[in-house]
Amino acid sequence: MRTELLTRxxxxxxxxxxxxxxxxxxxxxxxxxxxxxxxxxxxxxxINCTHRSDIGANLNATxxxxxxYAPCALTIDSATLTASGTCPNITAGIVRPLxxxxxxxxxxxxxxxxxxxxxxSWADLSAxxxxxxxxxxxxxxxxxxxxxxxxxxxxxxxxxxxPAPPVTDCNNPSDTETSxxxxxxxxxxDAFRTNPIDFNINSLVGSTSNLLxxxxxxxxxx
Length: 222
Known about the structure:
Elements: E1 11-14, E2 19-23, E3 33-40, H1 52-58, E4 60-65, E5 72-76, E6 83-91, E7 95-105, E8 113-124, H2 127-132, E9 135-139, E10 147-149, H3 152-160, H4 176-194, H5 210-216
Antiparallel strand pairs: 1-2, 2-9, 3-6, 4-5, 4-7, 5-6, 7-8, 8-10
């Protein structure tokens, strides 16, 4: 594992294809706020994707971090589709829900973003973890700790989940189920209101995947 140090900053570093590591360094003092350097492999399967090179040439990624931070634009490697960049001044000390959106600019609508996929997960940035173990694994692979949304129906299904009983502790990373519920509540009540996901284009039915349309080269066919 390699930990990269930035001037007066601490970083997030990836050491495996399916796991993100948040490397939070105290820089000589207790960590309260940190720059987070991101490198996230593409976790959405592309099978028989005829227009993969076109997607790679135009794909964008934005990371949303709970707490009212501005959306963090990431750079896409056109060959590997890995998203990377730095999100500044993130306060550590708690478990934070995360949202990773992949999108393409609409060429006939002034480059307006059209979502291909959205991965909802969370990261343990609690002070105890930062102090005791600076490498914090964050699973962005769709599965137990991450939810993949690719269609309007996926978003509608998430929004329609009945409200969970009030959660008094969203800061317990050992409780995966509760952390997932807290991430879903954040997405429904905060993230999606502030930064709506737009899967709707071409009057497609709710179950149609924009990613599949992009692979077929028909996403922006009017």
